[in-house]
Amino acid sequence: MKLKFSYLMLAGTIMLSANSFAADGSTSPKPKQKPTAPKKFIDPANMDATIKPGDDFFDYANGNWIKRNAIPAKATRWGSFNILGQENTDKLLGLLKEVSQTSATQPKGSLKQRVGDLYASGMDSVTIEKRGYDPIKPDVQRIDAIADLDAVIAELVYQRVNGEGSPLFRFGVGQDEKNVNKYVVGLDQGGTSLPDRDYYLKNDERTKGIQSAYKKYIVALFTLTGSSNDEATKNAGIIVNIETALAKAQLSRVAMRDPNVTYNKFSVDAFSKTTPHLNWAKLLPQMKANGQDTVLVGQPAFFKAADSLLAVTPVTDWKVYLKWNILKGSATALSSPFVNASFDFTKALSGQKVQTPRTERMSGLVDGTLGELLGQLFVEKYFTPAAKQYMVDLVNNLKVTLGDRIKRLDWMSPETKERALKKLAAFTVKIGYPDKWEQYDGVTINRDDYAGNLKTLSVWRYNFTVGKLGKPVDKARWGMTPPTVNAYYNPTNNEIVFPAGILQFPFFDFKADDAVNYGGIGAVIGHEMTHGFDDQGRQYDADGTLRDWWTKTDADKFKVRANQVVDQYNAFTVLDTLHVNGKLTLGENLADLGGLNIAYEAFKKTKQGQENKKIDGFTGDQRFFLSWAQVWRGSQRPEAAAQRILTDPHSPEQYRTNAPITNIDAWYKAFNIQPGDKLYKKPADRIKVW
Ligand SMILES: [Zn+2]
Fold first, then answer.
1. Which pTM value belongs to this model?
2. Does 17 have pLDDT greater than 90?
3. Ligand 1 centroid distance, CA of 603 (Å)
4. If you measure from the C-alpha of residue 680 to the centroid of ligand 1, how many angstroms do you get, rounded to a whole number?
5. Among 520, 448, 439, 434, CA closest to 482
């Protein structure tokens, strides 16, 4: 089931470790020594004084930093998030190297044995190279033996249950959005490999380049597993045809922003009638989803189309598609020719120049699969209770401020305001790391079997997912691991979540003045709170239920304001003809604008906010907005920019900096922005939402 979390920023791959919490296992964080060297939290050396703040605030605040910090060859973008991410990766690597030295002698099944041996197995390139593609040979043979459509459908089930992928569609278990205390089966569109349906459907030069790189990738993997070049080329055509047909039946990302569009409840029997070749009453128990009489279907028309495709496409073509699913899912876990072929495709798609070092790929892998074991070691060494307390206080200040702002809104009726305030009061706040850690019971890790370990972990995750059915909803679980540099709002739990990884400079520092912390982590907290009231979040009520709590007039007035935000961002051109998609990014843009407003108002209640004295040449107000810009400083490769325009609900960093401030009067005053400056907007045109 697709999770409707709203993140602060899109990470490369977000792996959600499924969590079943056993008691115990938490560790007590130790206070950390603070650095003593004086530090300029807003450093003029990073700015570009030749740019007027009113012409391009992003460049004014960050210009020299960007000039001095080229994107490393292993990255596709480079900025505050990435640098902090790199620091956390280095910390994880320090822990992993240490633990893996002794993990072989630790008790089997202990935290250190599993974490250390998983890392060691991924670093054991000698064994990995020797095995070539042995780990997937049984899968290839099994698919070779398929003779009819029934066997194709059985393979769709087999791959899921055995943690080998999600061919044709997505299957998951999540909270019923209209009955949030119950887990249900969710079925969603899927079955494609490229990052968005548009990659199959558009035919401009950039898209055609990626389509041809994709075919090359398919040919490479089939050739590596023994196909002739002719056969591999034919297979590429078959796969692209099937995936294009699926892409055509998929809803766009913008259409899926409306949670009511993707909420379609069916009885299992009624849904089976819409897909004559897929009998869900039979399939669900085979997929270990027992005792289910209803399903939630994200895109019913997609399943109808996928079902027709099953019938009209030859079984021999499905065998090619199913084999591809195995190949693409395992390529990075096999020997280097497979890893390199996979990276060649990544290069074409994202512009990344060189492969991420194996050590860093493996720390990412351990974080993504045993993240709540590794996370315990991370917070024990690197997270302080004092940071948590600072956050608790800041969140409370911002909550009060958002409440005041809601009460003052001139466009909302008292009736809707009361419900909005109720929702705000009901926010759950999670900071740092989970109260109860996931133990990954039953996961055995062997130091000499990397592919086997990955399979074990996938199967565990699948079983964990289906194991939720029939159990009470576990609201303690986290959707991010502690070292993650990100944050999220989860509408069905009405919760805002801030992992330990983001609670560091430039978001936050104990020694920094309030302006820097409020313009950094304060605006991030405000951002996540505003998600509860953005175009999606506002459709969920205080207990997380998808239920309309707005009067019709208030909803209409909200939409008028939201559309102004859509128009503002639609006007930004990122790369030649590609402009920001104002509808796709609406939720994030609303959250940025709301978050900055809330944080600024809360900042003005602090001593520094009231005095507005200069530090390092800047007033408190100036430092607040410069801190916001500093959080977003960075640059990205054009290939990555093009991909993000299609797939990322967040606007590019330059606009995340420049756009919201143009709607905030205090920014004009702080930097003396005047008519004629490029970013200037007349007071009447400045958008006010939250
Ligand atoms: Zn967000």
1. 0.94
2. no
3. 21
4. 25
5. 434
